[in-house]
Amino acid sequence: MEQLKKRIIFHIDVNSAFLSWEAVFRLSQDKKALDLRDVPSAVGGDRASRHGIVLAKSTPAKKYGITTGEPLAQALKKCPDLIVVPSRFEVYHDFSQRLLQILEEYTPDIEKFSIDEAFLDMTSTIHLFGEPVTVADQIRERVKKELGFTVNVGIAPNKLLAKMASDFEKPDRCHTLWTEEIPQKMWPLPVRDLFFVGASAEKKMQSIGIHTIRDLAHCDLQILKFHLGDKYAAQILCYANGIDEDPVAKREPVSKGYGNSITLSRDVSDYDTAFQVLLSLCETVGIRLRKDNVLCSCVCVELKDWDFHVHSHQMTLDIPTDSTTLLYQNSCKLLREFWDLTPVRLIGVRASQISDDGFTQLSLFDTRKSQKLEQMDRAIDRIRQKYGVDSIKRASFLNQEALVEHAAGKKKHLS
Is 117 a catalytic residue? Predict the structure, then answer.
């Protein structure tokens, strides 16, 4: 019972995610297909749009020294017989969602850390299922049986230690890293293995005699600050000692905001194309706001690159709105403020700070313009309600080469 009084965090990590998901998908299409997990193989995507790099590799490929992120040409030199297959991000997204559906049966407190990782706060629900290791093993076996791929599960009192634990022996394993196990299980590891320690920090620490996590854990903070900077030094010293108070971020209820995102068929690296995608997304977000008779006071734009690094930026609006045009204009402004044109595969728009008080305080200078925009949007909604979403669209989407449809995620009719 003592165990139940402490925080219990699980970290779920899919083993060789893209490669595993690609293998499972191919086998689902053809039971006689080669299992990519059993041979030296890599998901490399299209050499042009994926920049010719290894996105994921099989365990046999690791034996040749092939690493994620290296150029395909370099990987093929290491292993001429390497099987390289293109990526299917829509398939991988589907597998990720199916994994989350299983995890949601164990706790509502889930933080999706990346497409193939998630944190679960099991503190308030673990008693419903059993001992932590038993429950983790149950999750691991269910994923393997029901979805066809394997995961590692780290079990610990905080997110940092849970993530460290899931990186221990792979694949298809469960590992604990309780506070009392830190000296034995974590401290002997190379300092580079500590979460948030990169090559540059590792080099600086090695220059002052820090080679293991134990060395870092016992280092004087002032010495670390001198070489690494105050904030970073304080953070990694806490990490080396297993200290992490970061909570598992609870997902915002759907009712708190209206959003839409789309995974694109190819990378986007120019403003014109990205703006067209934003317009498509703002069409559907605006439709939903007006249908529910609500207004938003905050707009957020989210970008996700090929490696699923997420970047977002948001702004508070001077006047609450449900206007597609205003959502679009502000989304474009946001995009220009924070996007450095790094190629992205997913673009999203989210409207939040929702109010349903039925009125908005208009600027004296924008009254006529806002009223006209509202009248136009309502008229378009009525036409689409009666004749279907495709019955009226903006001229910029008449080009057959447009990357997205005029209303991303649209239904045939609005009702």
Answer: yes
The answer to whether 14 touches 149, Cβ cutoff 8 Å, is yes
Q: Torsion-angle region of residue 51: left (phi > 0), alpha (psi -120 to 50) or beta?
A: left
The pTM for the full model equals 0.63
**Cβ 322 vs Cβ 286: under 8 Å:** yes
* CA-angle at 195, arms to 194 and 199, nearest 5°: 75
Q: What pLDDT shows up at residue 359?
A: 45
Going edge to edge, which strands form the sheet with 151-156?
110-114, 117-121, 9-14, 151-156, 174-176
CA 341 and chain centroid, separation:
19
Higher-confidence position of 49 and 231: 231
In sequence order, the 6+-apart residues with CB closer than 8 A to the CB of 68 are 54, 55, 56, 57
Query: pLDDT tens-digit profile of 193-207?
Result: 998 888 888 999 999
Catalytic residue, candidates 2, 70, 105, 117:
117
Question: Closest by alpha carbon to 168, among 155, 149, 180?
Answer: 155
Separation between Cα atoms, residue 62 and residue 53, nearest integer Å: 15
The mean-pLDDT minimum among 132-141, 276-285, 301-310 falls in 301-310
